[in-house]
Amino acid sequence: MMMVHPVKFLLSAAKRPLTRCCSAFVSRIRSLNRLKEDDDVCAEALQHAQIFLFHRLSPLLQSSERGTFRAVPLMYSDIRAILERLGSDEAKLKESVLIGCSEQNQVQFCLDVGELDQVALEEALDGTFVDLKKGFFVLRRSEAPLLAKAQALLRWHLTTGFCSATGRPTCPNQAGSQRVGGGGGTIYYPQMSPVVIVLVSDGKRCLLGRQPSFPPGMYSALAGFCELGESLEETVSREVAEEVGLEVHNISYSSSQHWPFPRSSLMLGCHALVSPAHSQVNVDHTELEDARWFTFHEITSALQVKGLWSRGHAPPLWLPPKHAIANRLITEWAELQRCSQKAD
Ligand SMILES: NC(=O)C1=CN([C@@H]2O[C@H](COP(=O)(O)OP(=O)(O)OC[C@H]3O[C@@H](n4cnc5c(N)ncnc54)[C@H](OP(=O)(O)O)[C@@H]3O)[C@@H](O)[C@H]2O)C=CC1
Ligand SMILES: [Mg+2]
Q: Which cofactors, if any, are listed as required (predicted)?
């Protein structure tokens, strides 16, 4: 198995002095920003960083206990040796893209080696390149967002090699946080799509819908892409009206999440109410296979379902896994119901 050296890139590589009173978090953020701004400092950091390898956008994973996967961070020198063995060279490592910095001050990059032989790489690295759609839900919750971010950035680089206006090549900075060129010196930044996801309640029940592509029995909160010119509240109102024919009020923001499927989205999680007198659902079947109201009892039972079930023993309702913001919204709603039932 490939050894990962415990070398840490000390943030002192960022030479700009930081104010003494900075918290560790602020120091980390500012140092990361410096790496995005200064190609030389970033190239130096790369030599001591953890690098997560991808093959055609599938991350390198190792299976661990109880059917889970874990990410495999490698060091620069390890990857250089493997690249040389497989007929590539150190220059490839320059394509690495900065993705973050751990709490232990370990700078983290990712690199796609999709042009190299997958089987030979997997043998050399003692791991498997796993489709993120499969790997995401069995990765540790601390690792899944990092690999999702890495895949999003790598995909963006793969698809923005040329300027859409001039057709000329664009060139990344060393951190891979932007691409410049295309003839006019235009700077291109990674793009993502804002999406609202809303848990609608009538005070006693919550409304969930399912798309034909969902696994059997799975229902989730309603979601939809923001249109240009809309506020968060306007998107929530429009999506609920379009998909289930209801008018919502009391929209409140809960939290957000980067979501990698099918492409990078910023999921903006909300709660909203409908009046119990106007809660008759009218589903648009071009968008949803079904949508219906669920009671507190149905939701709390579904939240207790753990892991996968055997064929023939599927629960009546299956909710999105804990990695998904939909699960967080449903859990928040159930908690609120529990509190208000206690207060009654
Ligand atoms: N993390 C979580 O908990 C959850 C995440 N989600 C995610 O939310 C996202 C949106 O939900 P969904 O109900 O599908 O959205 P919508 O209800 O907006 O419907 C999707 C359709 O909108 C069109 N569309 C409009 N703008 C875009 C855009 N920028 N990118 C892609 N398609 C666009 C596409 O139609 P066409 O191709 O016909 O033009 C697409 O098929 C999904 O990607 C889904 O993965 C959903 C539920 C839970
Ligand atoms: Mg939708």
A: Mg(2+)
